[in-house]
Sequence to fold (460 residues):
Amino acid sequence: MESFVYVLFIVVLAVNALIAIYGIVYRRSLTKKLISLTILSDTVFVAIILVGFIFKYPVVPPVYSGVESEEAFLLEHASDPLPQALVLTGIVIGLAVNALIAFGIIQVYRLTGTTDAKRAIKALIEEVMEE
Amino acid sequence: MSTRVVVLIVLLAGVVLSAITVTLLLKPEAPVSVRDLGKHYINYTRHNTSSPEAVTAIVWDYRGLDTIYETVVLYMAIIGGLALSTTTRKIVLKTRIGLTSIAKTATRIIVLLIATIAASIALHGHLTPGGGFPGGSALAITAMLIIPVYTLQSLLDQGVSSTRLIAVRGLALTALGLVAVLPVFRGLEAVTNLKFYPSHIAGMLISGSLWFYNLFEFLAVASGFAAVALYLSIPEEIYREEIGGVE
Amino acid sequence: MIVTLIVLTLALLLSLVFIYFAVTEKDLLKAVVFSAGQSVCYAILLHTMAAPDIAMTYLAVSVGLYSALLVFVISKTERYEV
Fold:
C-alpha cells in the first residue's frame, strides 16, 4: 500500500511538471506563462520535501516539545529538517523573481499595447529598427 | 462534454493505471528511515543552538549566511519594481471617500486579528514552526486589504508613502546586518550564535540571536511588501501621460 | 496510517485537476482562482508530510501574495488570452 502511494506521488508530480512546461512553451499570453512558471516551481518544492518523508506511523515534525526522553522517539519518527530549510530559501527567491517578472509584463504592455508574446517582440524589434 | 473534460478524464485514468502497473511490476520499497545527516541535525540541535526547533536553527544558525543573502535578493527585487514605477510629478488622485462604514469597521477588526496572529507566528519562531518570513507575509496581506477599502489618496494624506516604507525596510535590514556582524568585534566569526549572545534572558528561552533575527526579518518583509502594494495601485493614466510626454 | 494515505492520494489527484484547468483556461481571472485552489491542495499535502513550517510559508505566499499580484497585473493589462 505504501509503495503504491510512493509511485503515485512520483507519477503525479512528473505529470504536473509536464503540464506546466507545456503551459510555458505553447501558450501565447505572457501572464499565462507567469502562472505556469509558479506552478512548475511549486511542484519542484514538493518533490524536494518528498525526499525527506518517511512512510511510517506516526510521523511527526522535527520539533522538541519539552517532554522527557524524547530524543529516541524523534530519531525514529521525525521527518528530515534539512530539505525543509532549503525549500524555505527557495520560496523566498522564487517570490522575488516572480514579482520582478510581473513588473516586466506591465512595462511591456505600456510600451507595445499587447501581452501576446510574438506580437510584442515584433513591435519592440520594429521600434529599434526605426532608429 | 467538451474536449478539455475528456482529455482530463483520460489523463487521470492513465496516471492511476500506470501507477498500479509500475507497483505490481517493479515492487519498489517506500523509505522508512531518515538519512544520517538528518539524524545528526535532530540529535544535536538542542545542545548546539539551544533552540528546540530544528528547521529554524538550520535556517538562521547552521546556514545563516544563506538566509542573509536571500534577504538581500528580496531587497533587490523590491528596488527593481520601484525603479519601474517612479513618476516625475507628485501624485494627486480624485477619490477619497472609499467604501461604506460597515466595510471599514469590519476591515479594522480583521486587520487587528491578522496583525496579532502574524506577530505571534514571527516572535515564536524559535519554539514552534513559523519564523520571520511567514509572519511578515501575513502582515503584508493586511496592507493589500486596506488599500481598496480606505482609498490610496487618504493613505497618502496621512504620510504613508512607498518611499518611507522602503526606508523602514532599510533600517530593519541594517539592524539585521548589525546582529550578524557584531561578534566580529570580539574576534569571533561573522554569524555566531551561542558563543556571543545569551541563551536565556530573565529566565525566558531566547536562543541567542535567533529571536532578534526573526523580529527584524518580520519588520523588513512586512514593510517591503506593503511598499510594493502601494506603488502597484497607482492608476494607469498617470503612466500613460508620462510615456506620451505631457509637458 | 490508512487515513494518511487516503488524504495524500486525494490531494494529489485534486491538484492534477486544478493544474490542468489553470493551464488551459482562456479567461485569466478564472486561471488565477484555479491556481489558488492548486496551492491549497499542495498546502494540505505539505502538512500531511510533516513539514508545518513550509505549509505556513507556502500558504501565505502562494494564496495571498501571488493571487493579489496577478490580479493587479491582469487589471493593468488584458483579461482574456489571445
Q: What stands out?
A: Chain B has one domain: 59-244. The longest strand of chain B covers residues 200-201. Chain B is about 65% helix and 0% strand. Chain B has a mean pLDDT of 88.
